[in-house]
């Protein structure tokens, strides 16, 4: 049994503009100790998915259907008291903006020890000791004296570490990291990601890492789900996603990763923007931006299928993608090709778009999965 | 150094009887010390509220080529100098139609929670929503069909019973050319 199983989750926001289809029929599962990445542009529904798992969706948002099974129990059917005992304890979340997540009028130490006192029943002295120990673990220097500092006395990186300490304080089974390094510079980003990874290995915690940075996913995750306009468009083990992407959106994302030594003047980007989630285009939501779109893409919405067989995806399929190409409905096919080149110290994936795309693209994959070098 | 927290000068928000839920029913008011939205909801008869609000739908052209997106603008206006609240049947406050088909879909698009909604207009407020119809009808959960050339009626209406009779709907006609 998976640690977390999300089945057919649909979340909508009822606004004056219309109904926002934030998450549409989304299913995924995360095993114990697994590192699962969720990638996509802003507005793809990544954060709403995470907040739905924590049952933190507020009005005008509504979880319209689906189930979120955690250790076999449906979180959406639990009482408020039951969900509060799980939130922060068995499922913890690292929010993307640490400065907003921390309460400015309480000391950082107090905010960490409050969680420990509430969930683990420690007394004040024990909770303080554990908080100091956690601050030390996440790399806050002189943790004992920093315990009684206020959030504004911490730098951005330290605030993020404090949030991670708070999230790890009750040894959660699942840690949801919602763009934990977006607000940080790259050196701190690397340190924070290493810390999350090390700590997760140490505590055998499963991680759901939400990001729009495919490089971060390659470094950290075992499996990845790519989301577009509230729907999953591709799910695969991280190596397969990088070496053999099946969805044109994934290819577009990979092409837009900058690479050292790249001689192109401009990066290849995906033309256009994410559609308005109130007015989704008919057919495949990605078709207005897809260089390989055909008439059939405007009439049919592709389901997630096994790209090899074209059969509807099942839980056992490792690599699935939602594109009409794999059900034989595209006449010209997908015109990109991916070649993996050896270089002195890293593997490179070259994604060459076909005749219909505006230009060829060249993509570097930062250490996908860690050990495979073709 | 003595910290503010240690001085007990601050009230914790987890004391018993402290409200722990955000009250989303309150809106920021034009005159902050008078909750005129609530007052008008209580004092203004619904019939007058219906008469105070108008809706209009318009398109930039009357004719469109096949396959061309049809953009349209829905404008709603409260003509009263007080806030007005229109109670709606569900959380879907208004909808647009093509030949009477809601959002050009022959299949239900959503299953809203069993709750009534409220469409709130500030005093004299004008709301404008920009939408487009891509000349397709949704005919199955994942299937669409292109609309044939001909004349189509685009409409917009509040989600209230008999919106037509209450003057809370508007229509316009567009033609899809056959070229």
UniProtKB/TrEMBL annotation, chain A:
The record's annotation in SMART domains points to:
AAA
Q: CDD domains in the record, alphabetically?
A: ABC_NikE_OppD_transporters
Membrane topology category: Peripheral membrane protein
Domain annotation ABC transporter: ranges: 4-254
A single GO BP annotation from the record?
Answer: peptide transport
Query: Per its UniProt entry, which superkingdom is the organism in?
Result: Archaea
Q: Name one Pfam family in it.
A: ABC_tran
User: Under the GO molecular function aspect, what terms does this record hold?
Assistant: ATP binding; ATP hydrolysis activity
Q: Which UniProt keywords apply?
A: ATP-binding, Cell inner membrane, Cell membrane, Membrane, Nucleotide-binding, Translocase, Transport
Localization in the cell: Cell membrane
GO terms for cellular component = plasma membrane
Record-linked InterPro entries: AAA+_ATPase, ABC_Ni/Peptide_Import, ABC_transporter-like_ATP-bd, ABC_transporter-like_CS, Oligopep_ABC_C, P-loop_NTPase
Region of interest (Disordered), residue spans? 342-374
Protein name in UniProt: Oligopeptide/dipeptide ABC transporter ATPase
Q: Which organism is it from?
A: Natronolimnohabitans innermongolicus JCM 12255
Automatic annotation (TrEMBL), chain B:
Segment Disordered: which positions?
1-26
Pfam families noted in UniProt: DUF7974
Q: Which residues form the DUF7974 domain?
A: 42-177
- Which InterPro entries has this protein been placed in? DUF7974
Q: What is this protein called?
A: DUF7974 domain-containing protein
What species is this protein from? Natronolimnohabitans innermongolicus JCM 12255
